[in-house]
Amino acid sequence: MGLRAKVVLCVLLLSTVLGGLALWLLHASVEQSHLELEQRAAREDITRLLQTLDDELALRDRVLREWSLWPDFYQFSEDGNALFAARNLNPQAVANSSLNWLGLYDREGRLLRSIGVPGQAIELRLPEDFTPAIRLALARPATDASLPCGLARVRRDLMMVCRRPLLDGLSGAPARGTVAIAEWLSPAVVLGVARRSGLDARLRLLAPGEQLPGEPMALDLRAQTGSGAVMVVTQPERLLIHWPLRDLAGEAVAVLELRWPRHILQRGHELLGRVSWVMLGLALVLTLGLVLAADRLLVGRLVRLRREMAAIRDQRQWNRQVTVQGHDEITELAGGANHLLGVIASQVHVLERLSQTDELTGLANRRCFGDRLEQATRQRQRRGEALTLLLLDVDHFKAYNDRYGHQRGDVALQAVAACLAGAARRPTDLAARLGGEEFALLLQSTDLEGARHCAAEIRAALAARALAHEAGGPEGRLTLSMGLAEARPGETPDSLYQRADAALYRAKAAGRDGVAE
Protein backbone atom coordinates (compact mmCIF):
# COMPACT_ATOMS: atom_id res chain seq x y z
CA MET A 1 0.00 0.00 0.00
CA GLY A 2 1.41 3.35 -1.08
CA LEU A 3 1.84 6.41 1.10
CA ARG A 4 -1.11 8.20 -0.53
CA ALA A 5 -3.42 5.26 0.18
CA LYS A 6 -2.16 5.04 3.75
CA VAL A 7 -2.75 8.75 4.36
CA VAL A 8 -6.25 8.57 2.88
CA LEU A 9 -7.02 5.48 4.96
CA CYS A 10 -5.70 7.10 8.14
CA VAL A 11 -7.67 10.31 7.51
CA LEU A 12 -10.83 8.31 6.81
CA LEU A 13 -10.37 6.20 9.93
CA LEU A 14 -9.63 9.26 12.07
CA SER A 15 -12.62 11.15 10.65
CA THR A 16 -14.86 8.13 11.15
CA VAL A 17 -13.77 7.63 14.76
CA LEU A 18 -13.99 11.33 15.64
CA GLY A 19 -17.29 11.72 13.77
CA GLY A 20 -18.75 8.64 15.44
CA LEU A 21 -17.60 9.85 18.85
CA ALA A 22 -19.04 13.33 18.22
CA LEU A 23 -22.34 11.85 17.05
CA TRP A 24 -22.46 9.55 20.07
CA LEU A 25 -21.80 12.45 22.46
CA LEU A 26 -24.32 14.61 20.63
CA HIS A 27 -26.91 11.84 20.67
CA ALA A 28 -26.36 11.22 24.36
CA SER A 29 -26.56 14.93 25.16
CA VAL A 30 -29.65 15.58 23.01
CA GLU A 31 -31.34 12.42 24.22
CA GLN A 32 -30.70 13.24 27.87
CA SER A 33 -31.72 16.89 27.57
CA HIS A 34 -34.92 16.09 25.69
CA LEU A 35 -35.73 13.29 28.12
CA GLU A 36 -35.41 15.79 30.96
CA LEU A 37 -37.61 18.25 29.06
CA GLU A 38 -40.08 15.48 28.40
CA GLN A 39 -40.17 14.43 32.05
CA ARG A 40 -40.62 18.04 33.14
CA ALA A 41 -43.45 18.64 30.64
CA ALA A 42 -45.10 15.34 31.59
CA ARG A 43 -44.96 16.24 35.30
CA GLU A 44 -46.48 19.63 34.55
CA ASP A 45 -49.28 18.05 32.49
CA ILE A 46 -50.18 15.38 35.06
CA THR A 47 -50.14 18.08 37.75
CA ARG A 48 -52.46 20.22 35.65
CA LEU A 49 -54.75 17.27 35.02
CA LEU A 50 -55.02 16.45 38.71
CA GLN A 51 -55.56 20.10 39.52
CA THR A 52 -58.44 20.13 37.03
CA LEU A 53 -59.92 17.07 38.72
CA ASP A 54 -59.48 18.72 42.11
CA ASP A 55 -61.26 21.77 40.70
CA GLU A 56 -64.25 19.55 39.94
CA LEU A 57 -64.30 18.36 43.53
CA ALA A 58 -63.82 21.92 44.76
CA LEU A 59 -66.89 22.95 42.74
CA ARG A 60 -68.98 20.31 44.58
CA ASP A 61 -67.49 21.43 47.83
CA ARG A 62 -68.71 24.97 47.20
CA VAL A 63 -72.23 23.62 46.59
CA LEU A 64 -72.00 21.68 49.83
CA ARG A 65 -70.78 24.74 51.69
CA GLU A 66 -74.06 26.51 50.96
CA TRP A 67 -75.99 23.60 52.48
CA SER A 68 -73.72 23.24 55.51
CA LEU A 69 -73.98 26.95 56.46
CA TRP A 70 -77.76 27.28 55.95
CA PRO A 71 -79.25 28.36 59.32
CA ASP A 72 -82.64 26.73 58.61
CA PHE A 73 -80.92 23.48 57.84
CA TYR A 74 -78.97 23.81 61.08
CA GLN A 75 -82.27 24.31 62.97
CA PHE A 76 -83.83 21.36 61.18
CA SER A 77 -81.11 19.05 62.51
CA GLU A 78 -82.37 19.95 65.99
CA ASP A 79 -86.18 20.07 65.68
CA GLY A 80 -86.82 18.01 62.52
CA ASN A 81 -89.34 20.52 61.13
CA ALA A 82 -91.54 18.53 58.75
CA LEU A 83 -92.60 21.59 56.77
CA PHE A 84 -88.97 22.57 56.14
CA ALA A 85 -88.18 19.02 55.09
CA ALA A 86 -91.13 18.89 52.70
CA ARG A 87 -90.15 22.15 51.03
CA ASN A 88 -86.37 21.90 50.94
CA LEU A 89 -85.21 18.35 51.62
CA ASN A 90 -86.73 16.57 48.65
CA PRO A 91 -85.32 14.95 45.48
CA GLN A 92 -86.14 17.98 43.34
CA ALA A 93 -84.19 20.32 45.58
CA VAL A 94 -81.21 17.96 45.46
CA ALA A 95 -81.47 17.70 41.68
CA ASN A 96 -81.64 21.50 41.40
CA SER A 97 -78.21 21.61 43.05
CA SER A 98 -76.89 19.18 40.36
CA LEU A 99 -76.47 16.50 43.01
CA ASN A 100 -77.46 12.86 43.05
CA TRP A 101 -77.61 12.32 46.79
CA LEU A 102 -77.63 14.31 50.05
CA GLY A 103 -77.23 12.86 53.52
CA LEU A 104 -77.51 14.38 57.01
CA TYR A 105 -75.75 12.84 60.02
CA ASP A 106 -76.08 13.84 63.70
CA ARG A 107 -73.21 14.38 66.13
CA GLU A 108 -72.98 10.64 66.83
CA GLY A 109 -72.82 9.71 63.15
CA ARG A 110 -76.39 8.44 62.88
CA LEU A 111 -78.07 9.04 59.54
CA LEU A 112 -80.94 11.48 60.01
CA ARG A 113 -81.95 12.03 56.40
CA SER A 114 -81.00 10.44 53.04
CA ILE A 115 -82.28 12.04 49.84
CA GLY A 116 -81.64 10.57 46.40
CA VAL A 117 -82.62 11.80 42.95
CA PRO A 118 -85.26 9.55 41.31
CA GLY A 119 -84.02 7.43 38.42
CA GLN A 120 -80.45 7.56 39.67
CA ALA A 121 -79.39 7.07 43.23
CA ILE A 122 -82.82 5.95 44.41
CA GLU A 123 -82.32 2.59 42.76
CA LEU A 124 -78.98 2.20 44.50
CA ARG A 125 -80.26 2.76 48.03
CA LEU A 126 -77.59 5.17 49.18
CA PRO A 127 -75.76 5.24 51.49
CA GLU A 128 -76.27 1.48 51.90
CA ASP A 129 -74.54 0.80 48.54
CA PHE A 130 -71.41 2.65 49.64
CA THR A 131 -68.61 0.41 50.81
CA PRO A 132 -68.38 -0.07 54.55
CA ALA A 133 -65.24 2.08 54.66
CA ILE A 134 -67.04 4.95 52.91
CA ARG A 135 -70.09 4.67 55.17
CA LEU A 136 -67.80 4.80 58.17
CA ALA A 137 -65.97 7.84 56.73
CA LEU A 138 -69.27 9.64 56.12
CA ALA A 139 -70.55 8.88 59.66
CA ARG A 140 -67.34 10.16 61.26
CA PRO A 141 -67.48 13.79 62.39
CA ALA A 142 -66.32 16.04 59.58
CA THR A 143 -63.68 17.64 61.79
CA ASP A 144 -61.83 14.34 61.81
CA ALA A 145 -61.51 14.18 58.03
CA SER A 146 -58.25 15.19 56.41
CA LEU A 147 -59.93 16.00 53.11
CA PRO A 148 -63.45 17.40 52.61
CA CYS A 149 -64.00 15.66 49.24
CA GLY A 150 -63.04 12.48 47.51
CA LEU A 151 -64.25 9.54 45.49
CA ALA A 152 -66.45 6.62 46.40
CA ARG A 153 -66.96 3.42 44.50
CA VAL A 154 -70.57 2.42 44.04
CA ARG A 155 -70.87 -0.95 42.40
CA ARG A 156 -69.26 -0.43 38.96
CA ASP A 157 -69.17 3.37 38.97
CA LEU A 158 -67.59 6.23 40.83
CA MET A 159 -69.16 9.11 42.65
CA MET A 160 -67.70 12.37 43.88
CA VAL A 161 -68.42 12.66 47.59
CA CYS A 162 -68.00 15.70 49.86
CA ARG A 163 -68.75 16.20 53.55
CA ARG A 164 -68.79 19.24 55.82
CA PRO A 165 -69.82 19.95 59.39
CA LEU A 166 -73.35 21.38 59.76
CA LEU A 167 -72.94 24.91 61.20
CA ASP A 168 -75.11 27.92 61.89
CA GLY A 169 -73.90 30.49 59.41
CA LEU A 170 -75.25 33.35 61.57
CA SER A 171 -74.53 32.52 65.20
CA GLY A 172 -71.34 30.48 64.88
CA ALA A 173 -72.74 27.76 67.18
CA PRO A 174 -71.01 24.36 67.40
CA ALA A 175 -71.61 21.80 64.69
CA ARG A 176 -74.72 19.66 65.12
CA GLY A 177 -73.70 16.97 62.64
CA THR A 178 -72.36 16.39 59.15
CA VAL A 179 -73.79 17.10 55.71
CA ALA A 180 -72.65 14.82 52.83
CA ILE A 181 -73.36 15.02 49.11
CA ALA A 182 -72.60 12.72 46.18
CA GLU A 183 -72.60 13.13 42.40
CA TRP A 184 -71.86 10.63 39.69
CA LEU A 185 -68.42 10.95 38.13
CA SER A 186 -69.90 10.59 34.66
CA PRO A 187 -67.99 10.25 31.36
CA ALA A 188 -69.08 13.80 30.55
CA VAL A 189 -67.32 15.05 33.68
CA VAL A 190 -64.16 13.11 32.80
CA LEU A 191 -64.33 14.41 29.23
CA GLY A 192 -64.69 17.95 30.54
CA VAL A 193 -61.66 17.48 32.77
CA ALA A 194 -59.63 16.19 29.82
CA ARG A 195 -60.84 19.00 27.56
CA ARG A 196 -60.02 21.76 30.04
CA SER A 197 -56.59 20.32 30.71
CA GLY A 198 -55.97 19.76 26.99
CA LEU A 199 -54.85 16.19 27.59
CA ASP A 200 -55.89 12.72 26.45
CA ALA A 201 -57.07 11.37 29.81
CA ARG A 202 -59.25 8.38 30.71
CA LEU A 203 -60.68 7.07 33.95
CA ARG A 204 -61.28 3.40 34.74
CA LEU A 205 -61.95 1.33 37.82
CA LEU A 206 -59.12 -0.51 39.41
CA ALA A 207 -59.53 -4.29 39.58
CA PRO A 208 -59.00 -5.94 42.95
CA GLY A 209 -55.30 -6.65 43.48
CA GLU A 210 -54.31 -4.91 40.25
CA GLN A 211 -50.79 -3.49 40.11
CA LEU A 212 -50.15 -0.49 37.94
CA PRO A 213 -47.59 -1.17 35.17
CA GLY A 214 -44.48 0.84 34.42
CA GLU A 215 -41.79 2.60 36.39
CA PRO A 216 -42.42 5.24 39.06
CA MET A 217 -41.99 8.87 38.00
CA ALA A 218 -40.02 11.18 40.25
CA LEU A 219 -43.04 13.32 41.18
CA ASP A 220 -44.45 14.10 44.61
CA LEU A 221 -48.15 14.72 44.02
CA ARG A 222 -50.83 15.31 46.61
CA ALA A 223 -54.43 15.84 45.60
CA GLN A 224 -57.91 15.43 47.05
CA THR A 225 -58.11 12.12 45.24
CA GLY A 226 -55.16 10.82 47.26
CA SER A 227 -51.41 10.53 46.91
CA GLY A 228 -49.02 7.92 45.60
CA ALA A 229 -46.47 7.10 42.94
CA VAL A 230 -47.16 8.08 39.36
CA MET A 231 -46.37 5.06 37.16
CA VAL A 232 -45.10 5.53 33.60
CA VAL A 233 -45.02 3.02 30.75
CA THR A 234 -42.55 4.22 28.10
CA GLN A 235 -43.45 3.52 24.48
CA PRO A 236 -41.68 4.78 21.35
CA GLU A 237 -44.43 7.26 20.44
CA ARG A 238 -46.05 8.07 23.78
CA LEU A 239 -45.94 7.73 27.55
CA LEU A 240 -48.73 5.96 29.41
CA ILE A 241 -48.97 7.74 32.77
CA HIS A 242 -51.07 6.15 35.54
CA TRP A 243 -52.21 7.91 38.70
CA PRO A 244 -54.05 5.79 41.31
CA LEU A 245 -57.23 7.52 42.58
CA ARG A 246 -58.18 6.86 46.20
CA ASP A 247 -61.61 7.09 47.72
CA LEU A 248 -62.65 9.07 50.76
CA ALA A 249 -61.42 6.21 52.94
CA GLY A 250 -57.96 6.20 51.35
CA GLU A 251 -58.36 3.00 49.29
CA ALA A 252 -57.28 2.88 45.61
CA VAL A 253 -60.46 2.43 43.59
CA ALA A 254 -59.63 3.80 40.12
CA VAL A 255 -56.78 4.84 37.91
CA LEU A 256 -56.46 8.00 35.84
CA GLU A 257 -54.67 7.19 32.59
CA LEU A 258 -52.91 9.88 30.59
CA ARG A 259 -51.79 9.11 27.02
CA TRP A 260 -48.98 11.61 26.58
CA PRO A 261 -47.45 11.89 23.09
CA ARG A 262 -43.66 12.15 23.00
CA HIS A 263 -43.50 15.18 20.72
CA ILE A 264 -40.54 16.67 22.57
CA LEU A 265 -38.37 13.59 22.17
CA GLN A 266 -39.50 13.15 18.57
CA ARG A 267 -38.51 16.74 17.80
CA GLY A 268 -35.20 16.04 19.49
CA HIS A 269 -34.69 12.99 17.27
CA GLU A 270 -35.60 15.03 14.19
CA LEU A 271 -33.16 17.73 15.25
CA LEU A 272 -30.51 15.09 15.90
CA GLY A 273 -31.11 13.61 12.45
CA ARG A 274 -30.70 16.97 10.75
CA VAL A 275 -27.62 17.79 12.78
CA SER A 276 -26.19 14.34 12.03
CA TRP A 277 -26.57 14.89 8.31
CA VAL A 278 -24.98 18.33 8.60
CA MET A 279 -22.13 16.87 10.63
CA LEU A 280 -21.72 14.06 8.10
CA GLY A 281 -21.49 16.60 5.29
CA LEU A 282 -19.00 18.69 7.23
CA ALA A 283 -17.00 15.56 8.06
CA LEU A 284 -16.87 14.59 4.38
CA VAL A 285 -15.79 18.09 3.39
CA LEU A 286 -13.22 18.15 6.18
CA THR A 287 -11.94 14.69 5.23
CA LEU A 288 -11.67 15.68 1.57
CA GLY A 289 -9.90 18.90 2.56
CA LEU A 290 -7.46 17.03 4.80
CA VAL A 291 -6.78 14.46 2.08
CA LEU A 292 -6.18 17.16 -0.53
CA ALA A 293 -4.04 19.19 1.87
CA ALA A 294 -2.01 16.14 2.87
CA ASP A 295 -1.63 15.15 -0.78
CA ARG A 296 -0.55 18.63 -1.84
CA LEU A 297 1.69 19.44 1.11
CA LEU A 298 3.12 16.00 1.85
CA VAL A 299 2.22 12.96 -0.22
CA GLY A 300 2.33 14.53 -3.69
CA ARG A 301 5.70 16.13 -3.07
CA LEU A 302 7.13 12.91 -1.63
CA VAL A 303 5.77 10.92 -4.59
CA ARG A 304 7.34 13.41 -6.99
CA LEU A 305 10.63 13.19 -5.08
CA ARG A 306 10.50 9.40 -5.28
CA ARG A 307 9.76 9.43 -9.02
CA GLU A 308 12.58 11.85 -9.81
CA MET A 309 15.00 9.86 -7.66
CA ALA A 310 13.90 6.64 -9.40
CA ALA A 311 14.39 8.26 -12.84
CA ILE A 312 17.86 9.47 -11.85
CA ARG A 313 18.73 6.02 -10.54
CA ASP A 314 17.38 4.14 -13.59
CA GLN A 315 18.96 6.50 -16.12
CA ARG A 316 22.11 6.92 -14.06
CA GLN A 317 22.00 10.68 -14.61
CA TRP A 318 23.76 11.55 -11.40
CA ASN A 319 24.32 15.15 -12.46
CA ARG A 320 20.54 15.87 -12.34
CA GLN A 321 18.75 17.33 -9.31
CA VAL A 322 15.29 16.82 -7.84
CA THR A 323 12.91 19.79 -8.05
CA VAL A 324 10.75 19.80 -4.89
CA GLN A 325 9.47 23.30 -4.12
CA GLY A 326 8.77 24.83 -0.72
CA HIS A 327 10.44 25.88 2.51
CA ASP A 328 9.93 23.02 4.93
CA GLU A 329 11.32 19.65 5.98
CA ILE A 330 10.57 18.04 2.60
CA THR A 331 12.54 20.83 0.90
CA GLU A 332 15.39 20.14 3.30
CA LEU A 333 15.11 16.45 2.44
CA ALA A 334 15.25 17.31 -1.27
CA GLY A 335 18.25 19.54 -0.63
CA GLY A 336 19.97 16.68 1.16
CA ALA A 337 19.13 14.37 -1.75
CA ASN A 338 20.57 16.89 -4.23
CA HIS A 339 23.75 17.15 -2.14
CA LEU A 340 24.08 13.37 -2.16
CA LEU A 341 23.43 13.32 -5.91
CA GLY A 342 26.19 15.91 -6.33
CA VAL A 343 28.56 13.72 -4.31
CA ILE A 344 27.55 10.67 -6.33
CA ALA A 345 27.99 12.54 -9.62
CA SER A 346 31.44 13.69 -8.56
CA GLN A 347 32.42 10.21 -7.44
CA VAL A 348 31.02 8.66 -10.62
CA HIS A 349 32.94 11.18 -12.69
CA VAL A 350 36.12 10.35 -10.83
CA LEU A 351 35.49 6.62 -11.18
CA GLU A 352 34.69 6.95 -14.87
CA ARG A 353 37.81 8.98 -15.40
CA LEU A 354 39.87 6.46 -13.45
CA SER A 355 38.30 3.59 -15.33
CA GLN A 356 39.05 5.19 -18.72
CA THR A 357 42.35 6.98 -18.01
CA ASP A 358 45.86 5.68 -17.67
CA GLU A 359 47.10 6.70 -14.25
CA LEU A 360 50.71 7.29 -15.25
CA THR A 361 50.31 9.27 -18.46
CA GLY A 362 46.80 10.75 -18.16
CA LEU A 363 45.91 9.38 -21.59
CA ALA A 364 42.92 7.13 -22.27
CA ASN A 365 43.50 3.52 -21.21
CA ARG A 366 42.97 0.38 -23.24
CA ARG A 367 39.34 0.04 -22.15
CA CYS A 368 38.47 3.56 -23.23
CA PHE A 369 40.38 3.04 -26.47
CA GLY A 370 38.41 -0.11 -27.25
CA ASP A 371 35.07 1.64 -26.69
CA ARG A 372 36.06 4.62 -28.84
CA LEU A 373 37.37 2.36 -31.59
CA GLU A 374 34.04 0.54 -31.82
CA GLN A 375 32.14 3.83 -31.77
CA ALA A 376 34.36 5.40 -34.44
CA THR A 377 34.03 2.31 -36.65
CA ARG A 378 30.21 2.47 -36.47
CA GLN A 379 30.24 6.18 -37.28
CA ARG A 380 32.56 5.56 -40.25
CA GLN A 381 30.13 2.96 -41.58
CA ARG A 382 27.15 5.29 -41.19
CA ARG A 383 28.78 8.48 -42.49
CA GLY A 384 31.53 7.17 -44.76
CA GLU A 385 34.12 9.40 -43.10
CA ALA A 386 37.82 8.52 -43.08
CA LEU A 387 39.23 6.75 -40.04
CA THR A 388 42.91 6.07 -39.39
CA LEU A 389 44.58 4.16 -36.57
CA LEU A 390 48.18 4.80 -35.55
CA LEU A 391 49.90 2.30 -33.20
CA LEU A 392 53.20 3.32 -31.54
CA ASP A 393 55.82 1.43 -29.59
CA VAL A 394 58.87 2.86 -27.74
CA ASP A 395 62.00 1.34 -29.21
CA HIS A 396 64.16 -0.74 -26.86
CA PHE A 397 62.20 0.39 -23.83
CA LYS A 398 63.13 -2.63 -21.72
CA ALA A 399 66.78 -1.77 -22.20
CA TYR A 400 65.96 1.83 -21.31
CA ASN A 401 64.43 0.70 -18.00
CA ASP A 402 67.39 -1.55 -17.29
CA ARG A 403 69.85 1.24 -18.04
CA TYR A 404 68.14 4.21 -16.43
CA GLY A 405 65.70 2.65 -13.96
CA HIS A 406 61.93 2.46 -13.83
CA GLN A 407 61.52 5.99 -12.54
CA ARG A 408 63.29 7.42 -15.57
CA GLY A 409 61.28 4.98 -17.64
CA ASP A 410 58.02 6.41 -16.28
CA VAL A 411 59.27 9.91 -17.13
CA ALA A 412 60.06 8.76 -20.66
CA LEU A 413 56.56 7.29 -21.07
CA GLN A 414 55.05 10.55 -19.84
CA ALA A 415 57.12 12.45 -22.42
CA VAL A 416 55.86 10.16 -25.20
CA ALA A 417 52.28 10.66 -23.92
CA ALA A 418 52.76 14.43 -24.06
CA CYS A 419 53.83 14.19 -27.67
CA LEU A 420 50.73 12.13 -28.56
CA ALA A 421 48.46 14.52 -26.68
CA GLY A 422 49.95 17.42 -28.60
CA ALA A 423 49.12 15.73 -31.88
CA ALA A 424 45.50 14.86 -30.86
CA ARG A 425 44.17 18.40 -31.13
CA ARG A 426 40.58 17.75 -32.19
CA PRO A 427 37.88 16.53 -29.83
CA THR A 428 37.35 13.46 -32.00
CA ASP A 429 41.05 12.47 -31.80
CA LEU A 430 42.03 10.03 -29.07
CA ALA A 431 45.51 9.38 -27.68
CA ALA A 432 45.74 6.24 -25.53
CA ARG A 433 48.26 4.11 -23.72
CA LEU A 434 47.46 0.46 -24.42
CA GLY A 435 49.92 -0.93 -21.91
CA GLY A 436 53.64 -0.87 -21.15
CA GLU A 437 55.42 1.11 -23.87
CA GLU A 438 52.61 0.65 -26.46
CA PHE A 439 50.47 3.66 -27.46
CA ALA A 440 47.71 4.39 -29.96
CA LEU A 441 46.32 7.44 -31.75
CA LEU A 442 42.82 7.20 -33.23
CA LEU A 443 42.15 9.86 -35.86
CA GLN A 444 38.56 10.36 -37.10
CA SER A 445 37.87 12.22 -40.34
CA THR A 446 41.59 11.77 -41.14
CA ASP A 447 43.02 9.84 -44.12
CA LEU A 448 46.49 8.29 -44.49
CA GLU A 449 48.03 11.55 -45.56
CA GLY A 450 46.83 13.29 -42.44
CA ALA A 451 47.94 10.34 -40.33
CA ARG A 452 51.45 10.51 -41.86
CA HIS A 453 51.59 14.19 -40.94
CA CYS A 454 50.59 13.41 -37.32
CA ALA A 455 53.20 10.62 -37.15
CA ALA A 456 55.89 12.97 -38.36
CA GLU A 457 54.79 15.61 -35.86
CA ILE A 458 55.00 13.11 -32.99
CA ARG A 459 58.46 11.93 -34.03
CA ALA A 460 59.66 15.50 -34.28
CA ALA A 461 58.25 16.42 -30.87
CA LEU A 462 59.94 13.41 -29.25
CA ALA A 463 63.24 14.17 -31.04
CA ALA A 464 63.05 17.72 -29.75
CA ARG A 465 62.98 16.39 -26.24
CA ALA A 466 66.26 14.51 -26.90
CA LEU A 467 65.73 11.83 -24.31
CA ALA A 468 69.09 10.03 -24.12
CA HIS A 469 69.00 6.28 -24.81
CA GLU A 470 72.52 4.90 -25.05
CA ALA A 471 71.22 1.33 -25.28
CA GLY A 472 68.96 2.31 -28.22
CA GLY A 473 69.72 2.97 -31.88
CA PRO A 474 72.60 4.81 -33.41
CA GLU A 475 71.02 8.17 -32.68
CA GLY A 476 71.57 7.65 -28.94
CA ARG A 477 68.10 9.00 -28.07
CA LEU A 478 64.61 7.61 -27.41
CA THR A 479 62.73 6.77 -30.64
CA LEU A 480 59.34 5.35 -31.70
CA SER A 481 58.16 2.75 -34.19
CA MET A 482 54.72 3.36 -35.74
CA GLY A 483 52.16 1.42 -37.76
CA LEU A 484 49.41 3.10 -39.81
CA ALA A 485 46.13 1.62 -41.07
CA GLU A 486 43.15 3.36 -42.66
CA ALA A 487 39.75 1.76 -42.16
CA ARG A 488 38.14 0.11 -45.17
CA PRO A 489 34.42 -0.09 -45.94
CA GLY A 490 32.70 -2.69 -43.74
CA GLU A 491 35.84 -3.30 -41.70
CA THR A 492 35.51 -4.31 -38.05
CA PRO A 493 37.45 -2.76 -35.17
CA ASP A 494 39.47 -5.95 -34.71
CA SER A 495 40.60 -6.15 -38.32
CA LEU A 496 41.58 -2.48 -38.34
CA TYR A 497 43.61 -2.97 -35.20
CA GLN A 498 45.26 -6.07 -36.57
CA ARG A 499 46.31 -4.28 -39.77
CA ALA A 500 47.77 -1.37 -37.74
CA ASP A 501 49.58 -3.84 -35.47
CA ALA A 502 51.00 -5.68 -38.45
CA ALA A 503 52.26 -2.38 -39.85
CA LEU A 504 53.90 -1.66 -36.47
CA TYR A 505 55.75 -4.94 -36.61
CA ARG A 506 56.91 -4.13 -40.10
CA ALA A 507 58.27 -0.82 -38.84
CA LYS A 508 60.20 -2.63 -36.10
CA ALA A 509 61.51 -5.20 -38.54
CA ALA A 510 62.69 -2.38 -40.78
CA GLY A 511 65.05 -1.14 -38.09
CA ARG A 512 62.73 0.83 -35.81
CA ASP A 513 62.44 4.63 -35.56
CA GLY A 514 60.13 4.64 -38.54
CA VAL A 515 56.53 4.50 -39.83
CA ALA A 516 55.04 1.60 -41.76
CA GLU A 517 51.61 1.26 -43.48
Summarize the structure.
With 517 residues, this protein is of the alpha+beta class. The protein has helices at 3-68, 71-79, 82-88, 91-96, 132-139, 187-197, 263-315, 329-356, 366-383, 397-404, 406-423, 448-465, 493-509; strands spanning 101-106, 111-116, 149-154, 157-165, 177-184, 200-205, 215-217, 222-223, 226-227, 230-234, 238-246, 252-261, 387-394, 430-435, 438-444, 480-486, 515-516.
Oligomer: single chain
What's the shape?
rod-shaped
- Mean pLDDT figure: 85
- The count of domains is 3
Largest sheet, described in full?
5 strands, antiparallel
Give the distance, in angstroms, between the N- and C-terminal Cα atoms: 67 Å
Question: How would the blueprint of this fold be written?
Answer:
Layout: H1 3-68, H2 71-79, H3 82-88, H4 91-96, E1 101-106, E2 111-116, H5 132-139, E3 149-154, E4 157-165, E5 177-184, H6 187-197, E6 200-205, E7 215-217, E8 222-223, E9 226-227, E10 230-234, E11 238-246, E12 252-261, H7 263-315, H8 329-356, H9 366-383, E13 387-394, H10 397-404, H11 406-423, E14 430-435, E15 438-444, H12 448-465, E16 480-486, H13 493-509, E17 515-516
Parallel strand pairs: 16-17
Antiparallel strand pairs: 1-2, 1-5, 3-4, 4-5, 6-12, 7-10, 8-9, 10-11, 11-12, 13-15, 13-16, 14-15
Helix pairs in contact: 1-6, 1-7, 10-11, 11-12
